[in-house]
Amino acid sequence: MKRTMIKNLPEKKGEEVMIKGWADTVRFQGKMAFFDFRDVSGKVQGVVFGKPEVLEEAKKISAEDVVEVRGIVNERNDRGAKEAMEKEKESGVKDFFIKEVEIEITAIKILAEAEIPFALDEEVNLDIYLNNLPYTLRNPKTAAIFKVQAKIVQKFREYLNNKGFTEFMSPKIVGDDAEGGAGVYEVEYFGNKAGLATSPQLYKQIMVGALERVFTVGTAFRAEKHSTSRHLNEYTSLDWEMGFIDSYKDVMRMHNGLLKFIIDEIQEEMKTELAEFGVENILAPEEFPVMSLPEAQELLEKEFEGVKAVGEPDLEPEHERLLCQYAREKLNSDFIFITHYPVSKRPFYTYKSEDMEGMTDSFDLLFKGVEITSGGQRIHDYEELKKSMEAKGLDPEKFEFYLQAFKTGMPPHGGIGMGLERLTQKILGLDNVKKATLFPREINRIDTLLNK
Length: 452
Ligand code: AMO
Hints:
The chain is an alpha+beta fold and about 450 residues long. It has helices spanning about 50-60, 80-90, 125-130, 135, 140-160, 200-210, 250-270, 270-275, 295-305, 315-330, 380-390, 400-405, 420-430, and strands at about 15-30, 30-40, 40-50, 65-75, 95-110, 165, 175, 185-190, 190-195, 215-220, 235-245, 290, 335-340, 360-365, 370-375, 415-420, 440, 445, 450. Strand 17 and strand 18 form a beta hairpin. The protein is elongated, with a radius of gyration of 26 Å. The chain binds aspartyl-adenosine-5'-monophosphate. Aspartyl-adenosine-5'-monophosphate binds near residues 231, 416, 421 and 422.
């Protein structure tokens, strides 16, 4: 008999079926046994009733055993199920648990026995959760996080492909300094010194010379020494870059369109997953609010008592949180662009602002309290780029490979880099970016805790 996926059981009322999955919960009551079975598509209740030989087999099963179950699909008539279905009708959101039907079990077989550390739905602290990931990832609520994450990537690709961008794969082993910034992991490379890419920045710019519009999805490495709820040592960077722009505003417009698309599609297609996290209405308007850094700092001091921000070269995490609070309450948006960060705070490739002395035509995008994107226009003039490197104490000779792209004629261009895990975290309202990371690398952990 062919396997039926659990979510398809309501179409099989009255039929005999075979399902495969995990025994999610197991309960025995006199001559009856009750199970919830779970596969990737859903959960369903199963009962053994009046069949002593089946009950004998069922009694061997414990929670999380992998099982093959045969049985008849019956309509469920209990009050609990009816009430839950009413609620679903009202909200228009179906959850993972199929309540229309149950399985009257006629045969049950263990495919693999399980020995579990704790009940799958038990709330455990982050360390216990991470120490037991191969197990805790099975919790449908956890699995939902990574379904949403996969959907973000799918929609990122879809939008950009439709806008004439070409996907490329960016190298992860780079010369000893990827972007001229800090936080590079050193790698021993056949007797030479190499590094792990902190972003695909230089390669995506080079690729503009070849393909004009490009994007890439890949791992980026940051040797962050501190452990916070926003930082990872390995994250997934969603990057795009486009040529022939008039200004950084073209970059913001494209990114606004992209994020609106991603959020709209996720709110449409991932209702069940969002409902698990109580996410109701993410505000992604046609035009995200935009403020320059000095404007944002003034606003912070005006709107929030006791805040000091004016004159600082950057925003504090608390400032980002307050600006997002303001944007949601007053500007009807969960997103806000902050533009014009000072030259001293931005990487060497950032285009200098022509109308704000000492500032750059760059921006950060804040979403629900956290920076999820950095971007802007880039310097495309060869001589100016070399000067900008020198001003940051970098040696242009070390970047000769990259500089060829500019020597041989590069159009005005710009783009963005966005952290996939931060975006996932904020869409779902998770309190720590590690919960939106499948296998987080942090200072004291690579899968398991390190000794020192
Ligand atoms: P930046 O360094 O600001 O810019 O990074 C861009 C985005 O990547 C994510 N991110 C991180 N996420 C988790 N843990 C980290 N340690 C971490 N570091 C960065 C954030 C951040 O907004 N090349 C430029 C982008 C560009 O201008 O195109 C860059 O990498 O979401």
